[in-house]
Design goal:
With about 210 residues, this protein is an alpha+beta fold. Helices cover about 20% and strands about 30% of the residues. It contains three helices and eight strands; from the N terminus they run αββαββββββα. A hairpin with a 3-residue loop joins strand 6 and strand 7.
Length: about 210
């Protein structure tokens, strides 16, 4: 049996009130659901970039996003400072002097070693840790990676400087994603990828022994 006009009116008023309540709450709920995280200390940020020297020559182009830990060992301090408070989609153009990037070039980190101490398959551009130096070489500063820059019949030139040491760089970067860092990443101080971190690379082995 149909309800009275009064009952129907009350029912309609209740439905309208409920709808208005949900409508008022929808923007806040939607905003909470779609809120994008901003860069803070100890978060992980995914970046793409183009790296150039001051003459405009491209040194590196990163088309696919790579994750870095902010507040760890992955990024230069200057880059971390510029990223703070920005969110996904932000693009930044930075100029880094050598002391803000890979440091000044240190000629004392160049060494000449006998060619006969190294494997036949050694090539220019290969890099390795000081602990992987062949027996018989001169003592070198520890905790550095050394790059083979030149090979001669009688000797090999090793350089302990980063390949971009002494160079001011221009960096155009874009924030592709931001997320919270895991406890493991914070403990390691890295998301797994450092900014232009050089890995040891020897022919067929991790060392040159």
């Amino acid at each position: 049996m149909p309800g009275s006009a009064w009952d129907n009116a009350c029912h309609c008023a209740t439905v309208v009130a409920a709808f208005q309540f949900r409508l008022r709450d929808w923007p806040a709920a939607h905003q909470l659901h779609t809120h994008t995280m901003e860069v803070t200390q100890q978060c992980v940020v995914a970046l793409t970039w183009t790296l150039k020297d001051t003459l405009g020559e491209e040194l590196d182009v990163l088309d696919e996003p790579v994750e870095f830990l902010v507040g760890g060992d992955d990024l230069f301090k200057r880059i971390e400072e510029a990223l703070q408070g920005h969110g996904v989609g932000t693009t930044l153009d930075l100029h880094l002097e050598p002391e803000e990037a890979f440091g000044d070039y240190d000629e004392s980190l160049i060494f000449l070693e006998k060619r006969e101490l190294f494997p036949e398959e050694i090539e220019e551009g290969m890099s390795f840790e000081s602990t992987a130096m062949p027996k018989g070489t001169n003592p070198v500063p520890p905790d550095l990676l050394y790059t083979v820059t030149e090979i001669y019949p009688e000797h090999v030139v090793l350089d302990g400087n980063h390949p971009l040491a002494g160079i001011a760089i221009r960096l155009h970067l874009k924030i592709e994603a931001v997320r919270e860092a895991t406890e493991e990443e914070i403990g390691r101080g890295t998301a797994g990828t450092g900014f232009f971190r050089i890995e040891p690379m020897a022919p067929g082995n991790e060392t040159l022994h």
